[in-house]
Amino acid sequence: RILLWASLLVIVVSMGLQRLVFPEQPMTALRWVWFGLASMWVVVIIIVRKRRNIAKNVSYLLVVTSGLCAYADHLGGWRGWSTTIVIPVMCIFAIVGILIAVRVVRLHVGDYILYAALSALIGLSPGLFLIFGWVYNPIPSAISVAVGAIMLALALVFRRAEVKHELS
After folding, report:
1. What does the pLDDT average to over 45-62?
2. Nearest residue to 16 via CA among 55, 71, 66
3. Distance between CA 11 and CA 137 in Å, rounded?
């Protein structure tokens, strides 16, 4: 817990200091290295804290890394690469990753169904990127929305009782 809070404190303070000291400067190589290291620590913390539930781990990593990529895009002068390519592709592979993990580890339905449905819902979020015009190529977002919708539909059709049980 001490490592977690110390790491988060260092990351938040250093991000704040960078924005105060270098408010309008583009991302330099050193800042990209810092950002990569900070992102690595956040990912490691999530993996260590959520190691017992693979589907929860994937869901947390998806949300956090998507946020980190959008922030990196913002720091780099917002070119839209995060919303056009990275986040939709991560959503697709998070859904596929959960499906593979479920088969390989042979998880019980109750251990993964809620987070699989959550990942599918997150997979629909690039649809908002399409609606708001935040993408320069609609194909990755459209594929993510399709995969998310299919996964959500399959979960509701074939595992409706388990989803209902987990939600309750």
Report:
1. 75
2. 71
3. 32
